[in-house]
Amino acid sequence: KQEVTQIPAALSVPEGENLVLNCSFTDSAIYNLQWFRQDPGKGLTSLLLIQSSQREQTSGRLNASLDKSSGRSTLYIAASQPGDSATYLCAVRHYSGAGSYQLTFGKGTKLSVIP
Amino acid sequence: EAQVTQNPRYLITVTGKKLTVTCSQNMNHEYMSWYRQDPGLGLRQIYYSMNVEVTDKGDVPEGYKVSRKEKRNFPLILESPSPNQTSLYFCASSLSTGENEQFFGPGTRLTVL
Questions:
Q1: CB distance from A108 to chain B under 8 Å?
Q2: Mind telling me how many Å the CA of B80 is from chain A's nearest CA?
Q3: What is the 3-state secondary structure (H, E, C) of A12-25?
């Protein structure tokens, strides 16, 4: 059964710092990996999607990497801002049998960027 | 605007009173799913649908029903809600299964007394 782990569970950094969030998954047979942002009491906003054949994706100050063979992904945030404060979720899309695909989530990393 | 909508956004109800949470997407997506999010447990899939009239159980289907009579709508039905179904519920959709990005609705916060 696929399991997704995110470390650390919480992270606090001063404004302007670069930071890395980690995600690991137990079964490397994935189709893609998606990073989401969730603000308190709100829905999920998709940040980056990396297909299994890709190594990284970039969007603005965000860069996500994928090492499928080792079951790891990182989300790099450059020059952090207070507005980046949120919970970041990692999810992997994998085959779950009977022609279907499932999205399995990690429990998230709660990021606080201190002004 | 391309989006996934859910209604209601907030609901307080009592044990045993049937309720339906609606989900609709305007992106002509084939794949739709429901998740619940609980503190310490993260997001868990309840049910999913690969297309019209095709639905299947996710990881935590007990106490829930779904239907997919038309492509854009995927309602979640709680026939007899119980307090352990108090949670934050999300509907999601993607173009198809496999490689496509999933888009999430804004969430429905349900409290069952």
A1: yes
A2: 25
A3: EEECCCCEEEEEEE
